[in-house]
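Lab notebook page, bench 4
Experiment: in silico fold of construct C2
Operator: M.H.
Input chain length: 828 residues
Purpose: comparison with the prior construct
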Amino acid sequence: MASILQACTVLFFCQSISQATAQLIVTPVHDMVLDSNALVMPTSGSFGRILNGTTFQQEALITHGGYQYTAWYHNGSSDEDIFVSRRDLSGTTWETIDTGSGLENGDATASSDSRRWDGHNSISLGISGDGRIHLSFDQHVDELRYLTTDPGFATSASNIWNQAGFKPERDALNVNGAQIPKVTYPRFTNVGDDLVFTYRDRVSQDGDHYIATYNSQTGIWNAPHQFTDGRLGSYTDETDPVGQEPSLARNAYLNGFDIDTQGMMHITWTWREQATNANHDINYAYSDDAGVTWKNNAGVGLGSIISLNSPGIKIVDLNYQQALINQQGQVVDQEGRVHALMRHRRQEPGFEWQPGDATYDTVDAAYHHYYRDPVSGIWNVNRLPVDEPVGSRPKIGVDPNGNLLGIYRSGRNLIVAGAEKTINGFTDWQILYKDETDYEGDPLLDPVRLTEEGILSVFLQERATTSSETIPTGSPLHVLEFNISEHVETTYYLQASHPGGTSILSAELWFDAPTGGTSLADLNGYFPGNIFVVDGLNARTPSTSGTSVFAGTLVLQGTSPQLINHTGTNISISRMVVNSDTLFGQRVDGQQATIGELELNAELLIRQQLDPGGDAAFVFDEISGNGMLKFGLNTQDIDNHWGFDAADTDGDFTGSILLDKGILQFISSDLELPLATLQILNVDANSQISLVSDATFKAFQELNANNLGVVTLSVAPGTYTAADLNTLFGTTSRFTGSGTLTVLIPGDFDGDGDVDGADFLEWQRNDGTPAGLAAWQSNYGAPQLLAASAATVPEPSAILLIVFGTSLLVNRGYKNFTRETHLHETHL
């Protein structure tokens, strides 16, 4: 199977650099209904029921001269006329014109018997620098249908904005010009004040593309000339199930046709072969002479025609089995990076093609962001989150700061995803907004409004509530608007003065409104998501019941900072950074502390303050750093149950855990910690490990033995019950609980019990260290883990060592804690 890694030398997997100091925020501001009865085709229609808002509709929203413009088909009583509308960007009122022209080629009720309802016959809208509106519409291998206006009409006064402004329809670009007999997928693209018109000639598996340029000074189009050829070259795909290879004809399905700030034209596309109804490969070319000639990714000239034979155009090798859909998203940012947002089969292990898979299968597919460095020509790829099911073909845009926004429909919901620009590339994509209105079709965006003003405008139609096999119906057509803002965090130092930030108090810090002190919850309300540094101070929760929530970053540093969880209160902190040895005190029985991200650069001592024998639960969604978690170390902690719950999917916590008093209960079902050390001391003969749920340890190293008399044993890779571990260590009750403890083979980065090529990919994405690579190389080919038994003899290559004292142990039960579940995933 061809995979992304086999693509070519210019494609690199890119692990995004996370950025803790900024966040993209999507805020809905307008929901404007253009038409409550926009056309929805009958169920007998080809290629879906939606004509307004499909990937075939290349331009749906355009910003020009202080206005926003759009066009759509209206569901009239006896026709489907094209409505053109505009609004002043200072308001939300749309001025709408019925052009009098409408759907004929794609309308099965028209006079010709050969007509059928066809979702390809969409509208393309363009506005040239002279203020002339251009429309090309209702074509799927049909003669050109072209409407235009006089110059200046686009921004004319309201009393002039009417149907009379449109000139008679024609089948040529120029008046009395040559007819264009076969047009599909028309597209208008602005090049300064001029306009480029591109379209496909002939059919889907045997097509060529043509380009023509409109001169806004003369009002004349030049003659269209060909720039892709579908019949040059022969293609063979070893995975073709049809067996009709080689294929001698094809079509280039363009994702976009974009112009950068230097005037260069950029295209990305997939090929669809005549021999089979499937797409293959992602390709790229550019032109620096207005489309007269073209160059490949390396800048080598291709001449005036691009074909399958053109060298150096393929940037991603994807065969027929990779569920690659055509006509997706493309944009060029302010610095000349070309971005393509593509839906195809996931390339990680476990998502390979299986017999019976649909050609454009979405179950094993995901959205992938490809982008090109304009200097080196290197392409990088990040996968979008898979939290929401794959749905429509995506579109992509860029905001004024170079951040990326992607939109698509998942099921019936609109999804807005984003990736922030950083000095190293782009952060991991995140789903920023979900609109659960019942939508249909492909959401389209206004690229100019997003790039110039940071406003995301989305064109999308609701699903019709009625349907008929032969009669069209209607539904509301929307333009949705969202403010896109980049929240940059500010650091506030919580002491009298600090050179690195803003000082706001020098007293105790509280997480809620107590008697006296300053409330961090109140501060967070005014400064959401900011960083607060407790520099040698006490931070306290209130003496009331409930949960104190802090959505920012809390940094603990300076001289002996403390965080005290007060009476009856649970605490939830989005991110906590421990830079100095810190006391984290739970005051009473039954409290739970939930930390979204814990960065541990020093010691964090967790103690029970008042109630010996109590229960304290600690939930860490992600842990990083090389510090130490200490539980106990106080005589009143002897009988305490420490419920520890963490998920470290990134594998970047290389610190240690020390249990000196009480019972440490691993209560997570997905605990994965590559700790350097796990120590169980036995000062008071009461320290235990309780396996409430299954836990996995990735990469334990040697321990520093204490001076109290210890036994050091190795545990080989495998899966162990508490009984297994007690037998291995010669104890009867040091390990309790019904869960299991799994020790992984060094180099098993994906945690599936063996070391293979999939682990190299995980190392490349999430580890990248020389030590990790060495572990993978040393253990490559290691077999699946076998479940251990009580008679297992440890191997010298063990990676888990547990240290404990030799005195008699006391058997204790355990208690269950409620776990708050938080999902985090790294996307490539």
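Observations: The helical segments are 447-453, 520-526, 722-729, 757-767, 770-779. The chain has five helices and 60 strands.
Next step: discuss at group meeting.
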